Amino acid sequence: QVQLVESGGGLVQPGGSLRLSCAASESIFSVYTLNWYRQAPGKQRNLVATVTRSGTTSYADSVKGRFTISRDNAKNTVYLQMISLKPEDTAIYYCGAGAWGKIDYWGQGTQVTVSS
Fold first, then answer.
1. What is 30-99 written as a DSSP string?
2. Among 38, 70, 79, 87, which residue's CB has the most CB atoms within a 10 Å radius?
3. How do the pLDDT tens digits run along the chain, 116 residues long?
4. Which H or E element spans position 26?
């Protein structure tokens, strides 16, 4: 079964941290570049971070230095470690498999709310 399942979202105060997880089926994890996107209410879905099969990473300017994407090949899981969270990081975070903006598979999303 081809799937992506996110977890780890929640409510956190400004300045706090969260780690999101995305468990992927083997058929996805072994083939695809994996990405984290986010979508705030009333806004489009935007790319946050990317990790290739070889482990090369890239980030949106708005999260550089605060977010870290990584993949655990033994667990078929990709992570997004988020620190120094800001209210503007509030969004639904989605895991996506694909590259160059062409996403073949999406997870169901996990809500991150940054508020005092």
1. TT--EEEEEE-TTS--EEEEEE-TT--EEE-TTTTTTEEEEEETTTTEEEEEE-S--GGG-EEEEEEEEE
2. 38
3. 779 999 999 999 999 999 999 999 999 999 999 999 999 999 999 999 999 999 999 999 999 999 999 999 999 999 999 999 999 999 999 999 998 889 999 999 999 999 99
4. helix 26-29
